[in-house]
Amino acid sequence: MAQTVRSPGTRPAHRRTTDARPATGSLFATDGRPHPRQDALMVVTGVLGVLAFVTAMFHSLHLISSWAGLIGILTGVYGQYISRTTWERFGLIMGIGASGVGFYLGMAHGGLFGGVIT
Q1: 3-class SS letters over the chain
Q2: What is the Cα–Cα distance from 66 to 105, expressed in whole angstroms?
């Protein structure tokens, strides 16, 4: 009811845009703003996830896979906490998943301190 009484002078002006999204320089910033911290956490989580996943396939590299997996999980969880866009969350979840697989396989093969501390 209140919207029908509005005079024409108080209506917001419609902006005419030619492109839907402005260029931000970041592939994952879908809201039009740069997010360097979130992008860096996503890249670090992804790299640690790949490292943990690949080294978990070798029994003797359990120290690398378990530590890289643990750090990848922690950075990914913090990145999820401060993420702003869906693309950042998607990348972080992929990195957390790979880190988790590497971490758990590394723990099964000997753990964080297996063979170092007796």
Answers
A1: CHHHHCCHHHCCCCCCCCCCCCCCCCCCCCCCCCCHHHHHHHHHHHHHHHHHHHHCCCHHHHHHHHHHHHHHHHHHHHHHHHCCCHHHHHHHHHHHHHHHHHHHHHHHHCCCCCCCCC
A2: 7
What is the rounded CA–CA span in Å between residue 90 and residue 80?
9
Q: Using alpha carbons only, what angle is made at residue 61 by residues 105 and 96, rounded to the nearest 5 degrees?
A: 45
pTM of the model: 0.74
Stretches in the chain below the pLDDT threshold 70 = 1-29, 118
The pLDDT value given to residue 73: 98
Spatial distance between the Cα atoms of 89 and 31, rounded to a whole number of angstroms: 13
What's the token pair of residue 100? 């988790």
